[in-house]
Amino acid sequence: MRNMLSPGVRYMLLASFVFSIMNVCVKHISHIPAVEIVLFRAGISLAMSYWSLKRQAIPIWGTNTKVLLLRGTFGTLALVLTIWTYHNMPLATAVMLHYLFPVFTAILVSVFLGEKLYKPQWFFFALCLAGIFMIKGFDTRVTVTGMGVAILGAFFTACAYTCVRKLAGTDHPLVIIFYFPFIAFPITGILSYFQWVQPLGWDWLFLLLIGVLTQIAQVYMTKAYQAEKASKVASVNYVGIIYALGFGYLFFNELFNWKVYIGMGLLLVGVLLNVSFKKPKEKVQKEVVR
């Protein structure tokens, strides 16, 4: 089986699996505020990223400082909101809604970077919208507030990836990765002071795992995009939804009615069609952070 899969696909499958385990850890400590979890994750990532940059003698401050700072800010907002949704709605639903970010990214790069949107893409967006309405309409565990926070988190994720695309060719991937914890750590540190919940017992292990697993997954994801064309490995990332469905049932006894599954299917099809749709000779930006 290993020989049947290309290196890029194997790396992306590993990255998606590791991210999924990290999501389970996040949901297991839902009594810890989202900003506090981001604080621990950012602290670990900051130390590991700084060590990697120094080991490879890469200047840590980069070239396009303004966009790097925006990337870190958007990433911080996105992660806090996304973790909140993991705490307050079924895991698979939260993960599914997070994967709306490519749709928002396509719109943002069209508006701010001048990349053209084609008519079929608007149909793909409509499929996503129909899926969202079905998920909200037929799952009573998903509130209007929860749906709004999840969509806003996906939007800020798209803002972060738009910055990453803007940084293509100007800054090293490790520098881009570094700026997220560099911004997130002090911001979430201040916010955590006002709503601190003392981690106890196994909480410390889960917090450590969240930071370490995130860094490992980012490494595998970067290797995937270095080994293969982005168009080949991007869709593999969405196997994370299958992991979320399985882990949600296994660890949290999460089940859905058939109408919600149809809504998830519409959302997934819309996103995958948009990800796979490429204009002729379009150059795809590598995804290096999450």
From TrEMBL:
SUPFAM superfamilies: Multidrug resistance efflux transporter EmrE. The chain crosses the membrane at residues 12-29, 35-53, 65-86, 92-114, 121-138, 144-164, 176-196, 202-221, 233-252, 258-277. It holds the Pfam family EamA. The keyword Calcium does not apply. It comes from the Bacteria. PANTHER family: ACYL-MALONYL CONDENSING ENZYME-RELATED (PTHR22911), SOLUTE CARRIER FAMILY 35 MEMBER G1 (PTHR22911:SF6). It is found in: Membrane. This is DMT family transporter. Residues 8-135, 146-275 form the EamA domain. It is a multi-pass membrane protein. InterPro entries: EamA_dom (IPR000620), EmrE-like (IPR037185). Gene3D superfamilies: 1.10.3730.20. Keywords: Membrane, Transmembrane, Transmembrane helix.
